[in-house]
Design goal:
The protein is of the alpha+beta class and about 110 residues long. It is built from 3 helices and 7 strands, in the order ββββββαααβ. The strands form 2 sheets. Strands 2-1-6-5-4 form a 5-stranded antiparallel beta sheet, with helices on one face. It has a two-stranded antiparallel sheet with strand order 3-7. The longest helix has 13 residues.
C-alpha cells in the first residue's frame, strides 16, 4: 500500500481515504510546494502553510514529477511505471496530497468564444 504521512506545526496525521480521486483530470504540484527526492520516495514541503509530507514510494515521486507534463493523473501514474492495478492505492495517496493542498487540480481551459 502506498501511504503519505503529513505533518504540520500543529498536527501529525496518517490519512486513509476511500478511492475517490479523479484520475482523469489534470493535476499540478501547488506553486508553493517543493519536492525533495529521497531513497524511500520524497519529502514534500509546502512553503505557504509549512506542511511537510512524506511520500513513501519512489514511483509515486516520479508520478508527482510528471504531473505538470501529463494531461491526467492516470497518465502520470502510467508514465511513472505504475500498473493500472496499483492506481487505487496511489489514488488514496494522491487524495491525501490534494486534501493537504500539496497538489491542486488543474483548471480547465475554457475555449468558448
Amino acid at each position: 500500500m502506498t501511504a503519505v504521512r503529513t505533518t504540520s506545526a500543529n498536527e501529525s496525521t496518517n490519512h486513509e481515504q476511500p478511492e475517490t480521486f479523479p484520475f482523469d483530470t489534470g493535476w499540478d504540484l501547488h506553486e508553493h510546494v517543493q519536492v525533495r527526492p529521497e531513497r524511500f520516495g520524497a519529502l514534500l514541503y509546502h512553503y505557504g502553510d509549512r506542511r511537510l509530507s512524506f511520500v513513501k514510494s519512489p514511483e509515486l515521486r516520479t508520478a508527482l514529477e510528471l504531473l505538470a507534463a501529463s494531461p491526467t493523473a492516470r497518465l502520470a501514474l502510467s508514465n511513472a511505471g505504475i500498473p493500472e492495478a496499483a492506481h487505487p492505492a496511489h489514488g488514496r495517496a494522491l487524495s491525501t496530497l490534494a486534501t493537504t493542498n500539496m497538489i491542486v487540480q488543474r483548471q480547465r481551459e475554457d475555449h468558448t468564444p
